[in-house]
Amino acid sequence: QVKLVESGGGLVQPGGSLRLSCAHSGRTFGRFRMGWFRQAPGKEREFVAAASRIGGTTSYADSVKGRFTISRDNDNNMLYLQMNSLKPEDTAVYYCNAYRSPLDYWGQGTQVTVSS
Predict the structure, then answer these.
(1) Strands 68-73 and 58-60, bridge-based pairing
(2) What does R_g of the chain's alpha carbons equal in angstroms?
(3) Which pairing describes strands 92-100 and 33-39: parallel, antiparallel, or unpaired?
(4) Is 9 within 8 Å of 108 (Cβ atoms)?
(5) DSSP state of 10
(6) How far is the C-alpha of 39 from the C-alpha of 63, rounded, in Å?
(7) What are phi and psi of 88, to 5 degrees?
(8) Rounded Cα gap, residues 2 and 27, in angstroms
(9) According to a count of CB atoms within 10 Å of the terminal CB, is the N or C end of the chain lower?
(10) Residue 33: beta bridge partners?
């Protein structure tokens, strides 16, 4: 069983930055494709960014391209999301995801609120 724990959320003004972290338990981190998703109130959960097992390949939702950067540290079982130039529409609960078919794990989420 894999446990994912997110941290780093909070309240930030528009244009500000936050860095989210996700700690992956166990010793199989490098076998999982890792990603970030978010869910705003009244909306469905949506894809934000993903990193391949080694981290050499990344992908982003169009809405965050050029502002967010996903990275992973396979030596320390950590996933990160650097979020810059934040906008009010980025407000959501952000979830860490670990995927390796058929396994699919989720963290409990961390709240990000962008407001003046």
Answers:
(1) unpaired
(2) 13
(3) antiparallel
(4) no
(5) E
(6) 14
(7) -55, -35
(8) 9
(9) N
(10) 99
Burial of 25 (0-12, 13-18, 19+ CB in 10 A): middle
The single residue listed with the structure tokens 């169009």 is 62
Residues whose CB is less than 8 angstroms from the CB of residue 5 and which lie 6 or more positions away in sequence, other chains included: 22, 23, 25, 96, 107, 108
Strands 33-39 and 46-51 come out as: antiparallel
Where are any strands of DSSP class E within 8-115?
Answer: 10-12, 18-24, 33-39, 46-51, 58-60, 68-73, 78-83, 92-100, 103-106, 110-114
Tens digits of pLDDT across the chain (116 residues): 899 999 999 999 999 999 999 999 978 888 999 999 999 999 999 999 999 987 679 999 999 999 999 999 999 999 999 999 999 999 999 999 999 999 999 999 999 999 99
Phi-psi region of 85 (alpha: psi -120 to 50; beta: other; left: phi over 0): left
Non-local CB neighbours of 76 within 8 Å, separated by 6+ positions: none
Sign of the alpha-carbon dihedral angle for 102, 78, 107, 68: negative
Task: Return the bridge partners of 4, or none.
Answer: 24
